[in-house]
């Protein structure tokens, strides 16, 4: 089940953090870069976030989260996280579909991921995103920006 979650609630922020940290550790290992900002989040910093959060639940357990911001008809996916215990079960695809099917009235969706994070890039491309450009974050560390035009 996917539902909007209230990140301002401490318990919810802690649940998100329990998914976020292991998820981003996998990406950090994959791209060999450990200074990813979400790895430095705390429950308090999540509670202050201006992003909209939606969670994917398996029973009562939070297994995945997508967060986004909308500005001038452009939706930016800020976080796409799935706990490693739930990898390859279609959760990220389900979270993306929930965005596509919601009536958010946006013209474009954008997202960034580590250039060497092939599973994430493959996921986004499978759902109609295309690569726009690579951006160097620090010496020899790149992210790939992807976008999808909405009908």
Keywords summarizing the entry:
151 residues; alpha+beta; Aminopeptidase; 7-stranded mixed beta sheet; 4 helices
Task: Explain what the structure shows.
28% of the residues are buried. It is globular, with a radius of gyration of 15 Å. β2 (52-58) and β3 (61-71) form a beta hairpin. It has a seven-stranded mixed sheet. The model has no long low-confidence stretch (mean pLDDT 93). The protein has one domain: Gcn5-related N-acetyltransferase (GNAT) (Aminopeptidase). The longest helix has 22 residues, at 10-31. By secondary structure, the protein is an alpha+beta fold. The protein is built from four helices and seven strands; from the N terminus they run βααβββαβαββ. The chain has helices at residues 10-31, 43-47, 91-101, 118-126, and strands spanning 2-5, 52-58, 61-71, 74-82, 108-114, 130-138, 141-149. This is GNAT family N-acetyltransferase. It holds the Pfam family Acetyltransf_1. Residues 3-151 form the N-acetyltransferase domain. It comes from Chengkuizengella axinellae. InterPro entries: Acyl_CoA_acyltransferase (IPR016181), GNAT_dom (IPR000182).
């Amino acid at each position: 089940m996917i539902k909007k979650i209230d990140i301002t609630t401490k318990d919810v922020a802690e649940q998100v953090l329990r998914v976020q940290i292991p998820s981003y550790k996998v990406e950090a290992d994959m791209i060999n870069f450990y200074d990813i900002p979400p790895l430095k989040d705390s429950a308090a910093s999540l509670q202050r976030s201006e992003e909209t959060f939606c969670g994917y639940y398996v029973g009562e357990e939070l297994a995945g989260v997508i967060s986004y911001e909308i500005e001038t008809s452009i939706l930016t996916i800020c976080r796409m996280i799935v706990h490693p215990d739930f990898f390859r079960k279609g959760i990220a695809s389900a979270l993306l579909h929930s965005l596509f099917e919601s009536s958010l009235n946006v013209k474009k969706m954008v997202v960034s991921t580590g250039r060497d994070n092939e599973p994430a890039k493959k996921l986004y491309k499978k759902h109609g995103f295309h690569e726009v450009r690579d951006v160097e974050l620090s010496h020899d560390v790149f992210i790939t920006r992807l976008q999808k035009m909405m009908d």
